[in-house]
Amino acid sequence: MLSALNRFTCPVCVGLLLACLASASALAKDVEVKPTYRLWIVIGIEGQDVRLAVDMCAEQTVLLRSEAERLKLKIEGPPADTVAGPGETIVSTALDVHVQLGEQQVVTNIAVVEDPPYSDIVGAVGWSWLKQTRFVINWDAQQIQFLGGDDDLGQGLEGFTAFGLSDQVPLAAISLGGEKDGLVYLDTGSFAGVAVSDARWASFRKQHPQAPKTLQAQYDASAGVIATEIMWADRYDLGKLTLRATTLESCTRGHAALPGFQAILGISAMFNLHWVVDGPGGQVLIRPVPEIRTPFDYNRAGAVFLPKGPGDDTLVARVVEGGPAYVAGVRDGDALLAIGDLDVTRWRTDPKVLPLSRFWWQPAGNRLELKLRSGGRSKLAAVTLRDLFPRADP
Q1: Overall domain count for the chain
Q2: How far apart are CA 41 and CA 61, in angstroms?
Q3: What distances in angstroms separate CA 37 from CA 31, 54, 96, 139, 262, one per listed residue?
Q4: Rounded distance, CA 296 to CA 180, Å?
Q5: In a domain, 237, yes or no
Q6: Which of 384, 389, 391 has the alpha carbon at shortest distance from 365?
Q7: Is residue 160 a part of any domain in this protein?
Q8: Among 331, 346, 347, 316, which Cα is nearest to 383's?
Q9: What is the pLDDT of residue 321?
Q10: Same domain for 158 and 128?
Q11: 154 touches 112 (CB < 8 A)
Q12: Shared-domain flag, residues 52 and 179
C-alpha cells in the first residue's frame, strides 16, 4: 500500500520547491530563463491523469494547492501552532485520495503545499510511493515507465549490473557493497552531476588538479547561498558504478548528514546510464548507454557574484583562475555594479535583475559587459563566455 501522510511537517520535495522559488521572481516578471530538464511521471488521481515531477530523493509525494483544488480534493490544514523544523516545510493534507500508480490502486493521503509565485510543476512523486513499483527511466521521453508485475526482468538485461536498494533510509539509495562502503543517493529532483563526500572530493582534486572547473551559486539549508566549485570528470568510479562525462562537486552539509553518505547523483550524472528500478525486489539494474551525451548547461563565465554578508547586499565576485571572467580582469572580491545597462545593485527590489545565472549560462561566444568596483575604483570587464567542459550533444 502507498504510504500515507500522517504529519503536518515533512521534508517534501524541498529541492524541487526551492528550485522553483529561486527562479520565481524572474519568471513571474517575464524574464527569460531556460526551462529546466525534468523527469516526469503520469499517475491517476481521482480518475484524472496528472503529470508530476519525479523526486527519488524526497520521501513524500506532494501537490501544489492549486492542483489539489483543481482536482477537488478534500484538504485539511495544519493546526495553527504547527512549527516546521530544520529542512521541513509546513503542509496541509489531501484526505482519502483515490490514486492509481502503475498497477496499484489505493486510497491514501497526499501532502499539499502553497503555490510559489512561479512553478513549472504541479507536484512531485516521492520515493515512498515509487519504491513500491517497478519502472525504467526513459531519458529521451523524460519520464519513467512502469513495468507490469508479470514482466521478466531477466529478459533483455544483458550487461546490466545489479545494486541493492537500501532499506535503512526513506530515500532512493543504492549500496556500494558492504555496510562500510556506504550509499549513493539518487536525486532526480536535481539537474546536478555528482556531489561526493568531503574525503572523495579532496582525493579527486588532489589527483586531478588540472581538471576543467567552474562555479555555481547554490542554496544550502544550513549556510544559505554559497559558491560551489564544479569540476569535470571524464570518468568517476563509485565502487562498481562507473560514471562518465559528468560534473563533480563537494557535498553540502545536508548531504553529508545522510546515513552512509558517499555520493548523491543528480540527473546530469544519471543521464548516461540505463536504469531499471525494481522496488519490491530491492534492486536497481544499471548499464551504460552506447553514446555519451552531455545535455546540461552551466556557468561559462567561471565566476559568481553573491551577497557580501548579512545586512550588506553588495554582490561580490568569486572567480575561477584562468576562466573567462578572470581573463577579462575580474578578481575575487570585486563588487558587481552592472551587466550592460542593467543595474544589479537593486537586485532585491528590481525583479528584472535575478537570476544572474541567465547571463552566465548563455552559449559560448556571448560577450558580457560588466561594470565593477575594485579597491574603491570602478572598472569595466568584457567577459567572453566559452565552453569550459567537453560537449557531446544528444
Answers
A1: 3
A2: 12
A3: 18, 11, 32, 10, 25
A4: 33
A5: yes
A6: 384
A7: yes
A8: 331
A9: 95
A10: no
A11: no
A12: no
Which of 101, 132, 163 lies at the terminal end of a domain, its last residue? 132
Q: Tell me whether strands 62-64 and 104-113 are parallel, antiparallel or unpaired.
A: parallel
Q: What is the pLDDT of residues 237-272, one digit of tens each?
A: 999 999 999 999 998 878 888 999 999 999 989 989
pLDDT band at 187 (very low <50, low <70, confident <90, very high): very high
Give the C-alpha separation, 12 to 5, whole Å. Answer: 11
Which of the 8 DSSP states describes residue 346? Answer: G
Give the residue carrying C-alpha cell 512561479. 118
One DSSP character per residue, 348-377 reads TT-TTT--THHHHTSPTT-EEEEEEEETTE
Nearest to 130, CA basis, from 88, 151, 101: 101
* CB contact set of 267 (below 8 Å; sequence gap of 6+): 37, 39, 187, 188, 190, 191, 192
* Contact (Cβ atoms closer than 8 angstroms) between residue 176 and residue 238: yes
Pick from 107, 117, 41: nearest CA to 73: 107
Regarding whether 158 and 100 lie in a shared domain, the answer is: no
The domain containing residue 61 runs over which residues? 9-132
What per-residue confidence (pLDDT) applies to 32? 35
Backbone angles phi, psi at 128, to 5 degrees: -60, -30
CB 58 within 8 Å of CB 124: yes
Look at residue 322 in the predicted model and tell me its pLDDT: 95
Average pLDDT, rounded, for the chain: 85
- C-beta of residue 298 within 8 angstroms of C-beta of residue 358: no
